[in-house]
Amino acid sequence: MLSNNLEFKKLLLLHGKDRRKQSMETELENLPHSISHIDSKIELENATIASATQELKNLEIESNSLENEINSLSEQIVRQKNKQLEVKKNEEYQALENEIAGLIDQQSLKEDEHIEILLKLDDAKETSKIAESKIRDKVKLLEIDRKKLSEKGTELNSEVARLNSEIEETITDIDESLILGYARTKKVVSRPPYIAPLEDQKCSGCNLRVSNDVVSSVLVEQKLTHCDQCGRIVYFER
User: Fold this and answer.
1) What is the DSSP track for 24-62?
2) 209: which strand partners?
3) Taking the CA atoms of the chain, what radius of gyration do you get in angstroms?
4) Quick check: pTM over 0.90?
5) Which helix (H) or strand (E) holds 92?
6) How confident is the model over 29-60, as pLDDT tens digits?
7) What is the distance between the alpha carbons of residues 232 and 222, in angstroms, rounded to a whole number?
C-alpha cells in the first residue's frame, strides 16, 4: 500500500510541515490587521477620556466666567448704593434704586446658573473619575493584548524560518519524481490539503467520489495518484 512506502511517508511528513508553515504565514498576514484593530480601540478609549476631560474643563471655564460676572455685578451694586448716599434728588435716587434692583435680578439669575453649573461639575467629576479608571484598566488590557500579538509575530516568524529550513532538508531526502508531482499539485490545488486520504472511495480533500481507475491506481499500482475531481494526491490509509 502506498501509505507504507517509505518515500511516500516522507512526502506526507513534508506535507504536514508545509501545512503548518502555510497556517503560520496566514496568521502572520492577519496580525497587522489584528494589531491595527486593537490600536483603533485604544485610540477610541483614549479619545473618550480626552472628551470627558475637555467637558470638565469647559464646565470649569463656564463656572469661573459666571463667578466673575457675579462678582462684577456685586461691585456694580455696591457702587450704585454708594451713589445713592450722595444724590439729593428723589428722582435720581429712584433711578439708582431701579438700576440696583435690575442688577440684583441679574445677579440672582447668574447665581442660579452658577449653582446649576456647579452641580453639573460635581457630577461630571465623579463620573469622569469612575469612567477614567475603568477606561485606563481597559486600555492596559488592550496594550497587553497588543504586546502578545507582537510577540506572537516574532515567534511565528522564527517558527516559519525553522520550518523552511526543515522543508528544504526534507525535500532533498525525497525521490525527485514525488517532489515534482507534489509541486505540480500545489500549483493546481488552490488550498491545502494537497494530499488527502480516500474514505469510502471519496477524496477527503474535496469530498467527491473518485473513479474506479483512481482506486485501482492507488491500491493495485501503488503509484502517485491524483483525485480526478480536485487534483489532490490521494492514498488509502492503513
Assistant:
1) HHHHHHHHHHHHHHHHHHHHHHHHHHHHHHHHHHHHHHH
2) 202
3) 40
4) no
5) helix 90-171
6) 999 999 999 999 999 999 888 888 888 899 99
7) 16
